[in-house]
Amino acid sequence: MKVPRFGLNRFDSRSVEGFAADVRRAELLGWDAALQPDSQLRRRDTYVLLAAAARVTERITLGPLLANPVNRHPTVTAGSISTIDELAPGRTLLGWGVGDTAVRLAGLKPARVKELEASTRLMRALLDGGAVEVGAERPARLPHHRPVPIWIAAGGPRTLRMAGSVADGVFIRVGTHSANLHAAVDAIRGGAIEAGRDPASVRLGAVFHTVLVDEPARALTMAKSLAAGYYEYSPALFGPPRLTWTGQDPEPLKRACQVWPDFHHAADLEASGRVVDFLPESAANAFSLRGGPDELVRQLLDVLRGSPAGFDYVVLHPIPNPPSPDEGERGFTARIAGEVLPRVRRELSS
User: Fold this and answer.
1) What is the DSSP letter of 185?
2) Strand, helix or coil at 3?
3) pLDDT single digits (tens) 28-59
4) What pLDDT, in 10s, does the model give residues 287-321?
5) How many CB atoms lie within 10 A of CB 182?
6) Cβ-based neighbour number of residue 331 at 10 Å
7) N- or C-end of the chain: fewer Cβ atoms within 10 A?
8) Is residue 171 classed as helix, strand or coil in its secondary structure?
9) Distance (Å, whole) CA 306 – CA 18
10) pLDDT 10s digits, 238-258
């Protein structure tokens, strides 16, 4: 089987220097990609952080996961990511999507699928050195253009199909259930075929929420909150695994129980998980990996072996959100790198 490159998307962003040091540490521990959310009201400027990390690393892939066309104009994002690639040549990617928490916290609405598609085409042309008509007196050009790959992060069928038609790669965010993964890959391939592209030319990645909690009951409660988060944003994802939401509608439920800003990002995932305790264990299993290292190795291997296609990247989103500073050898970054990734790589290679 293809052995994916494993990425991490949570780092110490309390300072620019601290972020750079944390990414350098992840590189030394064996992580393959350092991906940073572009969330202006929660973290420092993404591209300043990535530039600092580029200066102190040699191998690890760098990029936002994810940026969006609402918070920054696509021409600005294209210029920023090209600059990062000057500092980290050939090891930069642009994670792109409609925007969720970063957009909502600013009181804005996520981009529509057509807007995401148009912005992707615009940036692809700029990054390739082309001239783009933007309604100005002259076409827009990017003087420092570089061929940075654009990866769209998607979970809904329309976005996945669109991504297959225009993106260099697609980060699939549908949880871990094989039915949802199969449907996502089918949608991406279908979009590529409709656009006259070779489906094999579209690279694939996956984002898996990973609950590294040794106590089974706590891990299950947190995983239920994550399942609720998926339903909150993409209720159709409960269909293929044959799951049913039997509780109150998520929006009034969040307000009544003070879950903020959503079930994915609640400060206390145990408390938010108890709010949706009506969800069965099968729902928790369908949308995240959970447990100690042994359980995570088994579950991750099962998911990857059951996938309809090999992944170029697998991003293990840490749950709960790691503290800053990290807990050293007891923290997510070190434990996954030391106790999970080597075993998974070895099993897949064999």
Assistant:
1) H
2) coil
3) 999 999 999 998 778 899 999 999 999 999 99
4) 999 999 999 999 999 999 999 999 999 999 999 99
5) 16
6) 16
7) C
8) strand
9) 38
10) 999 999 999 999 999 999 999
DSSP summary character for residue 337: I
pLDDT reading at 326 higher than 90? no
Residue 317's H or E segment, with its range, is strand 313-319
Report which of 209, 207, 234 is spatially closest to residue 223, judged by C-alpha positions. Answer: 209
Q: Give the integer Cα–Cα distance in Å for 92 and 85.
A: 6
Token representation of residue 127? 């990054």
**Of the ranges 41-45, 228-232, 273-277, which one carries the lowest mean pLDDT score?**
41-45
pLDDT of residue 288: 98
d(CA 168, CA 148): 9
Q: If you average pLDDT over residues 334-344, what whole number do you get? A: 98
Query: Which H or E run includes 209?
Result: strand 203-212
- How far is residue 330's CA from residue 120's CA, in Å, rounded to a whole number? 40
pLDDT surpasses 90 at 140: yes
Q: Which two tokens stand for residue 332?
A: 């997510």
Whether the per-residue pLDDT at 322 is higher than 80: the answer is: yes
**CA nearest to 68, candidates 46, 38, 88:** 38
In one-letter notation, the amino acid at residue 129 is G
Q: How far apart are CA 282 and CA 279, in angstroms?
A: 8
pTM of the model: 0.95
Token look-up 């099962």 returns 302
Look up tokens 């965010």; give the residue: 173
Q: Is the Cβ–Cβ distance between 31 and 337 less than 8 Å?
A: yes
**Contact criterion met (CB below 8 Å) for 348 and 3:** yes
Chain centroid offset of residue 245 CA: 24
Structure tokens at 214: 């040794």
Q: At what angle do helices 157-166 and 113-127 cross, to 10 degrees?
A: 20
Question: Are 303 and 309 spatial neighbours (Cβ–Cβ below 8 Å)?
Answer: no
